[in-house]
Amino acid sequence: SAKKLGRNTFQFYQPEMNDEAQERLRIESALRNALERNEFVLHYQPQVDLESGAIVGMEALLRWQHPELGMVPPARFIGLAEETGLIVPIGAWVLRTACLQARALQDAGFSGLRMAVNLSARQFAQPELVSTIAAVLEETGLPPAALELELTESLFMHDVAQGVHLLHELKSLGVALSIDDFGTGYSSLSYLRNFPIDVLKIDRSFVNDIATDADDAAIVVSVIALAHNLGLRVIAEGVESEEQLEFLRRHGCNEIQGYYFSRPVEAGAFQQMLQDGKQLVCGGPRRLRA
Ligand code: C2E
Ligand code: MG
Ligand code: MG
Ligand code: MG
């Protein structure tokens, strides 16, 4: 028994851990083959401008449709893809597919839309990142300004100077840069001053209770003011209700993304939304112009 092994020894065998380890192994080996087997798909979630109500962009979100495991959400495999380095080829596929899709939408007459793509820490640490992105832009013919790269605060934890250098290189391609999940990571306000970023995305966890929690409301209002004072655009993530939407509109948030307007959808459904001219419907006349 564990007791016999002494006070400071942990018992190793735990059935749940074993299951978890096996599940991990299973996912890892399946992940290795997922690209060649064409099991990945991107869904697109609209980003809507709060002044015009129009769709102005979209975020590409990775989905893994495994024949036996079913639909595996990113939360269950992105971490593993990071650890194994598989995120590098997967991330390159995401970039290329998203840029092709953005280009196809432009060719269909929907120009001026931005395509946001998530970058992982591992990709960010790749020396080839900038040339990969340049090659994808060249190959797809997508104007660089139509591509927005979403980065998280954790990417800069290790080497801030190197991170800043890389951001400048990325900016010189002409793409836009945003900070995703803003406020949840290692947050230092000094980087907002030094980093050539264009957009802050307020994390869903702050948006969730803005209508009822005074602290969260205060944080969101402050982040919007901070972004605007620094000349950045601000997007609120995870907007699910009219109350949240109205709060954000009242406080001058530029754009929203969330289930209230639309869940992430397949490419065809996204294009259909554009064709239908789907817009954000506002609850009554706009306050400031009444
Ligand atoms: P994220 O980049 O912050 O993406 C937003 C997540 O919030 C998405 O989850 C989206 O479906 C979800 N979401 C959007 N609106 C709402 C809402 O109103 N309510 C709620 N409850 N959720 C909402 P998803 O697609 O499961 O992705 C989770 C995370 O996985 C992403 O968070 C991102 O960090 C990562 N991820 C997704 N695709 C990629 C990718 O291509 N590459 C990398 N490196 N990471 C990715
Ligand atoms: Mg994101
Ligand atoms: Mg986010
Ligand atoms: Mg709170």
UniProtKB/TrEMBL annotation:
<protein>
    <submittedName>
        <fullName>EAL domain-containing protein</fullName>
    </submittedName>
</protein>
<feature type="domain" description="EAL">
    <location>
        <begin position="24"/>
        <end position="278"/>
    </location>
</feature>
